[in-house]
């Protein structure tokens, strides 16, 4: 849950580092603090595309339902059309970086860090046992 909340804030899900984007649409290759490679496997970014699509269509659906309910029985077709087009064009662009970091968090929740995937102190390292030996 902590990782997901970090993703919602456009922060690294592992170390909570911000400033992961050089521009709105340009994601850094690695986290500047924990050194996590953001594209963990090939095809990694199809998930954020799915999240962005779900949020965009969800926003569009809610806006249309609210618009119809508030203006019933005489909904303004042109106004609702303009609102729908605006949402369809605007929300995916605004939500783009959030979809990246949220997807990264979800991926880390379902596929935890492999040894050596992050810098020492942020996760398991190669050659180290996940469990401490009993003494
Ligand atoms: Zn990090």
UniProtKB/TrEMBL annotation:
Family annotation (InterPro entries): DUF983
Residue ranges crossing the lipid bilayer per the database entry: 49-72, 78-98
Organism this protein belongs to: freshwater metagenome
Protein name: Unannotated protein
A Pfam family this chain is assigned to: DUF983
Keywords: Membrane, Transmembrane, Transmembrane helix
